[in-house]
Amino acid sequence: MAGKKTKSRPTPKKKVTGKRYTDAQKARIIAFVDEVNAAKGRGGVTASAKKYGVSPLSISNWIKKGAAASSPKKAKGARKATRGRKSESAWDELVRLRNDISSLEKELEQKRTRFNKVKTKI
Q: Phi and psi for 46 in degrees, rounded to 5?
């Protein structure tokens, strides 16, 4: 009996799935990214990743997908994702507002630069 080996059954592996975030959680995290970027100019994604324990890559993808969803040409599979939702969800509105704020901040920066140039001529 000493030479006989018993075979053990392999233990079934658990399915590994990532954590899922609601639109409200994503909106809160992206709002934090915008706050940090407005205050410091950059570093919002890293700061929010540390604060909320979310991968920086995930946050960047949420921001990119939001920007792609607001453009006229939708990303592949975007139609399936919006099926069954209201025409404009809170997530879509948040993305639209974020894009508006971004463009207004750029315009404001250009006007400040122009203002300072004119001011130095006085």
A: -65, -45
